[in-house]
Design brief:
Oligomer: heterodimer
CATH class of one domain in chain A: Mainly Beta
Largest sheet of chain B: 6 strands, mixed
Number of strands of chain A: 11
CATH topology of chain B: Immunoglobulin-like
Distance between the termini of chain A: 37 Å
Number of helices of chain A: 0
Helix content of chain A: under 10%
CATH topology of one domain in chain A: Immunoglobulin-like
Largest sheet of chain A: 7 strands, mixed
Order of helices and strands of chain A: EEEEEEEEEEE
Number of strands of chain B: 11
Structural class of chain B: mainly beta
CATH architecture of chain B: Sandwich
């Protein structure tokens, strides 16, 4: 299945600043997904990123706050903008595992963000 | 709408069995099951694509009742390595995976 390199693995940021998270996949994929996992909670889908088109955001998430880039079929970035302590979470990127149906989704190792 | 899992938490001794349920209010295209250990990313266990389908993976198996929009994960003869948080993930349409509320499983010697 695909291998995802995600960075940074963690960061502590000042409120009001922005952080860009990068995900690199070792093979070409059509869609990449960005999730947020707040402490002790489940994963919430932020948006789906397709190469060559604007990302599709889920309810409660907006492009101004979480701009996403998808310049090619192996790379995507998520920016958390104008951060507040409520943005402290783990952010994960994900792709459908290669091999077709039956292989689920593969996740990056996550970015643990703390906003102070 | 986020799928609801039950129970929220399970405590087992090694060798005991457990069942985790996942219920959705929407019609489902597929159901996934993942296990997440503390500080790690979720790891895929299995996917069920058809109503009434059952699948097995060693001592972990699952069923999917498409009509009831429900799935169950069966853990038999639990091992210490089974500890973690289990999430179902549902696709109401392809390529949009929504995770359930989660079930924390702890296995003790």
């Amino acid at each position: 299945s695909a291998v995802i390199s995600q960075k940074p693995s963690r960061d502590i940021c000042q409120r009001g600043t922005s952080l860009t998270i990068q995900c690199q996949v070792d093979s070409q994929v059509t869609m990449m997904f960005w999730y947020r996992q707040q402490p002790g909670q489940s994963l919430t889908l932020i948006a789906t990123a397709n190469q060559g088109s604007e990302a599709t955001y889920e309810s409660g998430f907006v492009i101004d706050k979480f701009p996403i880039s998808r310049p090619n079929l192996t790379f995507s970035t998520l920016t958390v903008s104008n951060m507040s302590p409520e943005d402290s979470s783990i952010y994960l990127c994900s792709v459908e595992a290669l091999g077709g149906l039956g292989y689920g989704y593969t996740f990056g190792s996550g970015t643990r963000l703390t906003v102070v | 709408q986020q799928p609801v899992q039950s129970p929220q938490a399970v405590i087992l001794r090694e060798g005991e069995d457990a069942v985790i349920n996942c219920s959705s209010s929407k019609a489902l295209y597929s159901v996934h099951w993942y296990r997440q250990k503390h500080g790690e990313a979720p790891v895929f266990l299995m996917i069920l694509l058809k109503g009434g389908e059952q699948k097995g993976h060693e001592k972990i198996s699952a069923s999917f009742n498409e009509k009831k929009q429900q799935s169950s994960l069966y853990l038999t003869a639990s091992q210490l390595s089974y500890s973690g948080t289990y999430f179902c993930g549902t696709e109401g349409s392809p390529d949009k995976l929504i995770f359930g509320t989660g079930t924390r499983l702890q296995v003790f010697p």
